[in-house]
Amino acid sequence: MSETLHPLHTALSLAASGVPVLPLRRGKVPFGNCPACTGNACGGRPNMKTPGPCRCPDLCHAWAAATTAPAVIVSPPWAAAWRQAVCVGYHPGGAGLTVVDLDNAEAIAWARGSLPATRTVATTRGEHWIYQGVMPSSNAVRPGVDIKSSMSYARYLGPGTGTMTYLPDAVRALAVKKPPTVRSVPHTAVPAGPGGGECPHRTPAYLERGIAMAVQRITTARSAIHATVYGAFLAVLSRHGWCGCLTDTHVTRLFTAAQTKGESLRHCTDAWNNARTTLGM
Q: Does residue 73 contact residue 67 with C-beta atoms inside 8 Å?
C-alpha cells in the first residue's frame, strides 16, 4: 500500500492486518501530551521507554498509544490528529516485527555484508530491513544503525520488497550492551577515628546498602533521568569514593541500572567523571 493515500486510510488498512498504528505529525514524531497528561500529571511515562498506568484515550503516549482498534483510530480524540498527520507510524514490536533502520549508504553496505537478507523498505536516506520477531529496541547500535522493535515506533513507508526472514542472532547481538569499562576509584587513605580501626566504609553491609539504594533511586526514577543518575553517582562517591572500597563490580551495577533506564555508556561515563570532578577526586 502506498503512503500517497490519506494517512488515515493507510492506518486502517494496517490495523486490519494486525499492525498497531499511530499518527505522526510534522517532523515525523508522535503528537505531544494532551492537557491531562502534560508533565506526566497522569502518572504515565509519555514518550518514554515504558508506559505507565495512564489510560488516557488520546494518542499522546507515543508507541504505547498505538492500536489496531478501528473504533479508537477514528474516535474524536484521534480524528483531529489524523487531519494534521503527515504520515503513519507503527509499533513494530506490537506487530511481532523488528526494524533495522539503516540511515545511510555506509550502514546499508554493512548490513548487506553482515546480516541475512530480508524484506527491505526504502527510506529518505537509507533503508528499513524488517525481520519477523521481537527484541529490545536500541539506538546507535553502530554508526547509522538503530533497532526499532518493542517500545518504539517506526514510520510506515510501504510494504517493501523481498521475503521477510526470522530475526537472526546477528541482529539480537547488536542490542546487547557490553559491560562498561571502568576503573575502580584510586585508594585514598582515610584517617582512623580516635579509637583506631579500619575505615567503616569497608563494612560490606554498609557499602552494599549504599549501592542498593543508588540502584533503586535510578531504577524508580520517573523523570529527569540524567540528573537522577548524576545525583546517585555523586551520592555513592561522596560516601564510598575516598577510601578505595568501590570495585569494578560496584560501578558496573550502577552503570547497568542507568543503561537500563536508557542512558548511553557515554552519558554514564560523563556523569561518573563529572561527579568525581565535583568532589575533587
A: yes
Evaluate whether 252 touches 179 at the Cβ level (below 8 Å).
yes
**Over the stretch 169-218, which tens digit does the pLDDT of each residue have?**
999 988 876 555 444 444 333 333 333 444 555 567 777 888 888 888 88
- Grid cell, residue 280, equals 575533587
Query: What is the amino acid identity at position 160?
Result: G
The DSSP annotation for 73-126 comes to HTSHHHHHHHHH-SEEEE-TGGGTEEEEEE-SHHHHHHHHHHS---EEEE-SSS
Specify whether the CB–CB gap between 258 and 218 falls below 8 A. Answer: yes
* Spatial distance between the Cα atoms of 172 and 135, rounded to a whole number of angstroms: 7
User: What does the DSSP 8-state code read for residue 58?
Assistant: S
* Amino acid in position 133: G
